Amino acid sequence: QGKRLALLRNVDTRTRDGVPIALYANAESPADVAQARALGAAGIGLYRTEFLFLQRKELPGEEEQFLAYRDLVLGMGGLPVTIRTLDLGADKADSSGLVLDDEENPALGVRGVRLSLRRPQLMANQLRAILRASAYGPVRVLVPMVSAAEEMVSVRRMLKECERELRSSGHEIAHNVELGAMIEVPAAALALPGMIRSLDFVAIGTNDLVQYTLAVDRNNDQLANLYDPLHPAVLKLIAQTIATAQKAGRRVKLCGEMAGDRRYTALLLALGLTDFSMHPGVLLEVRETVNALDRSALRTHASALLRAPTRERIQRVLERLGS
Ligand code: PEP
Ligand code: MG
């Protein structure tokens, strides 16, 4: 299998009926970035910046972050890189005292963008570092754990302000660095039609979307049987998010574990997805799967998949689709 997959390193990702599909890599370390590049990823679809903040006492400042993001951008040699702002909290605690440790329910607490907006200086440092890296290649900013349109209004305002300051102090930065939201809370998926015009792109985070839609802790082994990406409610939210974004002419990528699991590739193509972001270790498997599927045939089964009332029925449809 290793040999067969290795042959796919320099092959385009394209369905059997000729539709180009973009496979991006999720990354959190320089090793992931190197692997992504070597396997022919379309870019970095999700750079988890928490990596820079964990296991240390002092927070990284603007300069340290800038160097890390610049190296990331240079490492991808001109391919687009999506950098996610800090997503600490809940399962991603730190040791620098940033994350509140007296929350009764941290998964529903001060995490992701909620934490960033409460620490404007911290967020400004990160946005400035990302903007400065945009002088070295195409960069996009992605915001985690969004649950309300107002949060993105605040982030957009901060981004613009940082841009102005950097320009007036003589920094060269790209024009119009794109800003997008993670859709990983059901409220964001449901409210997306009202929000989409103020976003440049969206990224679906199914790891959290499954958790919050089904009220099932993503890390609780006791509930693993209930943590189900094929739950009809989850599929509806994914399908709606894809359709809303596409109707508004915005790019939509799926970057949860589901994107890198070839059991779900046919399903996601059927729902209209064209941009996937996954751990680089599974990129070639997914490329092999995509290249064997017929997208237009799959698209005709989207409504049957969305009508199916149970996981079993959804799986039965998928089996007929040959995945
Ligand atoms: C997700 O929630 O699906 C996601 C991609 O982000 P993370 O796994 O980092 O929470
Ligand atoms: Mg998430």
UniProtKB/TrEMBL annotation:
Primary site of residence: cytoplasm
Keyword Transferase: yes
Cofactor(s), by name: Mg(2+)
Enzyme class: transferase
Documented EC number(s): 2.7.3.9
Localization of this protein: Cytoplasm
Keywords, ordered alphabetically: Coiled coil, Cytoplasm, Kinase, Magnesium, Metal-binding, Phosphotransferase system, Sugar transport, Transferase, Transport
Catalytic activity of the protein: L-histidyl-[protein] + phosphoenolpyruvate = N(pros)-phospho-L-histidyl-[protein] + pyruvate
Domain (PEP-utilising enzyme C-terminal): residue spans on this chain: 5-293
Task of the protein: General (non sugar-specific) component of the phosphoenolpyruvate-dependent sugar phosphotransferase system (sugar PTS). This major carbohydrate active-transport system catalyzes the phosphorylation of incoming sugar substrates concomitantly with their translocation across the cell membrane. Enzyme I transfers the phosphoryl group from phosphoenolpyruvate (PEP) to the phosphoryl carrier protein (HPr).
Assigned protein family: Belongs to the PEP-utilizing enzyme family.
Protein name: Phosphoenolpyruvate-protein phosphotransferase
